């Protein structure tokens, strides 16, 4: 079962945290959010933020529980300074999830994350 509202929630929360890359940013990262059945996965594009990775993960989980009553798993790898490296990691995450038979929705940036 697809959960399009999960994509909106991901975009809303990350939109509040996303910033233009500046010297104050912690680095580039992306997040993977898995729905309750484990087969619906949302992967964000890479972004920068001042929020901690754990804070973003907790916000994603809490918001999905509050809005839809769904238990999801949110994972954001550690931020890296090299955007290209993070894009490679994101591509591998998408490829892996698709190879496992999961339905993957990519939340694009910048239109969704702004």
Please explain how this structure is put together.
The protein is α+β, with helices and mostly antiparallel strands and 114 residues long. The chain has one domain. Helix content is 41%, strand content 20%. The protein is built from three helices and seven strands, in the order H-E-E-E-E-E-H-E-H-E. It has helices at 4-17, 53-68, 83-99, and strands spanning 18-19, 28-29, 32-34, 40-44, 47-49, 73-75, 103-107. A four-stranded mixed β-sheet has the order 6-3-4-7, with helices on both faces. A three-stranded antiparallel β-sheet has the order 1-5-2. Strand 3 and strand 4 (40-44) form a beta hairpin. Helix 1 (4-17) packs antiparallel against helix 2. The longest helix has 17 residues, at 83-99. It is flat and about 35 Å long. The termini are far apart.
* Number of E-type strands: 7
Question: What's the number of structural domains?
Answer: 1
Count the helices. How many? 3
Distance between the termini: 27 Å
What does the average pLDDT come to? Answer: 78
Order of strands side by side in the largest beta sheet? 6-3-4-7
Oligomer: single chain
- The amount of helix comes to 40-55%
* Percentage beta strand: 15-25%
Sheet with most strands: 4 strands, mixed
